[in-house]
Amino acid sequence: MIITRTPMRISFFGGGTDYPVYYREHGGSVLSTTIDKSCYITSRWLPPFFEYHSRISYSKVENVASNSKIEHPSVRACLELMGIEGGVEVHHVADLPARTGLGTSSAFTVGFLLGLYALKNQMRDKHALTADAIHVERDMLQEAVGSQDQASCAHGGFNRINFHTNDAIEVNRILAAPSRIAELEQHLALYFTGFSRTASEIAKDQLKATPQRLKELKEMHQMVDEAEAIVTNPARSLDEFGSLMHQGWQLKRSLTQKISNSSIDEIYAAGLSAGALGGKLLGAGGGGFMLFFVPPAKKGALRQCLKNLLCVPFAFSNRGSDVVVYEPEVAYDKSLATDRSEIYAQRS
After folding, report:
1. Nearest CA to 275 among 291, 290, 294?
2. Could you give phi then psi for residue 93, rounded to 5 degrees?
3. Tens digits of per-residue pLDDT, 286-321?
């Protein structure tokens, strides 16, 4: 049995990384951190004594006759990539719901791939794991996604992630005193807006708009430099970080009409009126979690103002995707699967 734990992430600033056409020509960067909210995936070889070949348990349960019949797209694609045709049992649970802007989909793909490698008694470094997850989501599943979620979830930590024009990905830890990082963490508040969305659908609209939004994307990219300079310089006020978040959100929401809506705009305006200096909707847009930068002394006023929304406490985490349980199993003789099929066929 293998159990993996993969963190979710919060992205503060970035330009171009969710727009492959853009960053393959211009490059891109993001400033992001993983948090203490994770998805957990249990994987094992399924003993060949059940009527079904594989069992996949997530928000629904699939009992399938072959791995090609699995409906969960990431599970099916990961098994195909790893060349696994034998029966498996997979269980997924998470600290927070999917489709909320915290990179949960990529966290699942990264964690499941890591578990499959462990199941085959193989290791995979974080750069290679990132590349595998990107290949599954972008190439095999043809999803309109970027590369930052996979890199952040695989590596973990508070990082600047650079995406080069040759598709190379560089992950650099932000070098700042722990007290400085803790101070930034204390200025953040996370609220669930109650709306869900599919990131790839919104990203498709963003991709179409890319040629007309090069100026905005360049500005978003430059904000990563400024944000890093603020965090790493203890002489600068972190309030500048909040103001920069406000500017970044105004830019992002201007890219397409689907990124924000009247309800989200009302939530953001209410947050500012309660003392927040800035914020952003996490992920592709359309719903999910709203992150506010707010002085600690005004967090109470913000909570009162947004009392109809769920406030989710969180902390930064340096942990990337890892194997938390590794208990290799003895493989069953393949002939047992054939015997099983014949015996159950006689009973039907």
Report:
1. 294
2. -135, 155
3. 678 999 999 999 999 999 999 999 999 999 999 999
Q: How many helices (H) and strands (E) does the chain have?
A: 12, 13
CA dist 337 and 335 (Å) reads 5
* Residue numbers of the chain with a pLDDT score lower than 70: 15-26, 195-213, 284-286, 331, 337, 339-340, 344-348
Interstrand relation of 316-317 and 28-45 (parallel, antiparallel or unpaired): antiparallel
Per-residue pLDDT, 210: 53
Burial of 61 (0-12, 13-18, 19+ CB in 10 A): exposed
Q: Are 44 and 1 contacting, i.e. CB atoms less than 8 angstroms apart?
A: yes
**150, 9 Cβ separation under 8 angstroms:** no
Backbone angles phi, psi at 303, to 5 degrees: -65, -40
What Rg do the C-alpha atoms of the chain give, in angstroms? 22
